[in-house]
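Below is one such protein, fold included:
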Amino acid sequence: MSHVLLIRLAAPLQSWGVAGRFGRRDTHSRPTKSGVIGLCAAALGLPREPPPDDPESDPLVELAPLLFGVRADHPGKPVRDYHSVGAGRFPLRPRDLATDHRRAAAVAPALETATGDTFGHHELDGWYGAPKRIAADPLSGALVSAEIRRNALITERWYLADATFLVGLQHPGRELLERIAHALEHPRRLLWLGRKSCPPSGQLALGVRPGTLADVFASVALLPAYSDAPPRTRDHRPWAWLESPHPVPGTGPVTDQPVRFHAMGPLHAARWETRVRVTIDPNAVDWNIIP
């Protein structure tokens, strides 16, 4: 028999990136499997990479096979953040001198004549104080600033505001799902909904129920809205996206199956899912949850 762990994902802001880069950080219209599995891995305290004494082991060996589903009880609305990074001049810090010998040489005369606390009180004309671009010095090979002065970078960042999703993780083993549920309420690492600026709100784990994703989603009531938006009627039929273990008619590929979460970059594979309307059981009991 299969079991489903229900997870509540609600917050003022969520952001589930798909193809974002530094200049433009996008968000999916719903949580991704990669993001939710990463959330569970962080709660369990799993490492990003295999331990040195067992390089062939896979930290995601238990989590990756879980079947994933998400029900959009309150889809929220997309919001765009106008964001600028960098520019201007900042006082030099110890790391600025340690990481760039050219900067240290330029400020050396001022440091020699200074008295008292010298760090954090000196600037260099025409020198950007916190460079992002790093390159190897052609003479010494040391890592230095590739661009010592630049204008502000304008970035575009997208979020989902006031959204509430009901996520389901299906697996035959109830013990694994209960262990994940406990970790979500007692996490070993910080949790966020897709981005570090989006911490979750309130209760996450909503218990483990017998059945499939489709059955469990239809048997539980809509979650209360996070914001003050008017509640949806009980006959509202939300959209849900259900993972299929095999490609069958009506399913489509989604490239968010986590393979690894290495620090040098994650790796994803394709999985199969279908989109359906969920008819909520009219006798489903409302949730007793503090938004």
About this structure: The chain has five helices and eleven strands.
